[in-house]
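Try this one yourself first.
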């Protein structure tokens, strides 16, 4: 699996890339939580001024956690990176719609769970629930969607394999359907076939901790 290079439309990605939206929601939540903790620390400090020693201790703890929240609000977006950086970093992978719900649908991607891309692949399937993918007007089971396989966490005990991989549709990065079609054709047919056969493992994949099932 190789990286699929294309020019990301940053404005389009900001509106449509649900992974970036998740990051912004996390950032907003961290800021709000930090502000609430600061307000709590002020209240506890006022309590201490009235002679309650625990007020000072609580105020210090609240300020500490508030600072951690503000740090996360800044650090998380930087770690995730922008849309162009994400697509330029993570490999192209095949994905298909495997479940259609009333307001969203689930895509399953065939991914290499090895950290080292040079050794023979250790295949797995990764799931992600999405609300919309540009170009898909009606979600149908088996619809082919080219994605970038965004590799996430890995455990200390088994650092040679990824524990979490999230499929990020190419169509979240560009409104150009020709680019998406080129990405779809760039994926070998045998990988699409392997993924199609793995669709029956949906429930098994859902039962895993991080929606990643090794085949």
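Now uncover the answer:
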């Amino acid at each position: 699996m190789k990286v699929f290079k294309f020019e990301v439309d940053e404005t389009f990605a900001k509106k449509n890339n649900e992974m970036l939206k998740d990051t912004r929601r996390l950032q907003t939540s961290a800021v709000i939580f930090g502000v609430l903790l600061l307000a709590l620390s002020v209240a506890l400090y006022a309590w201490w001024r009235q002679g309650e020693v625990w007020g000072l201790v609580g105020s210090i703890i609240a300020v500490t956690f508030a600072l951690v929240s503000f740090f996360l609000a800044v650090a998380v977006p930087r770690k995730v990176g922008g849309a162009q950086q994400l697509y330029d970093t993570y490999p192209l992978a095949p994905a298909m719609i495997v479940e259609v719900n009333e307001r969203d649908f689930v895509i399953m991607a065939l991914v290499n769970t090895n950290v080292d891309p040079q050794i023979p692949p250790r295949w797995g399937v990764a799931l992600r629930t999405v609300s919309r993918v540009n170009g898909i007007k009606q979600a149908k089971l088996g619809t082919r969607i080219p994605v970038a396989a965004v590799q996430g966490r890995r455990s200390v005990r088994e650092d040679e394999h990824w524990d979490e991989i999230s499929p990020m549709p190419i169509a979240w990065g560009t409104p150009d359907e020709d680019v998406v079609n080129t990405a779809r054709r760039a994926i070998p047919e045998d990988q699409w076939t392997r993924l199609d056969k793995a669709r029956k493992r949906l429930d098994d994949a859902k039962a895993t901790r991080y929606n990643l099932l090794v085949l």
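Discussion: The chain has a mean pLDDT of 84. Residues 16 and 147 are 14 Å apart (CA to CA).
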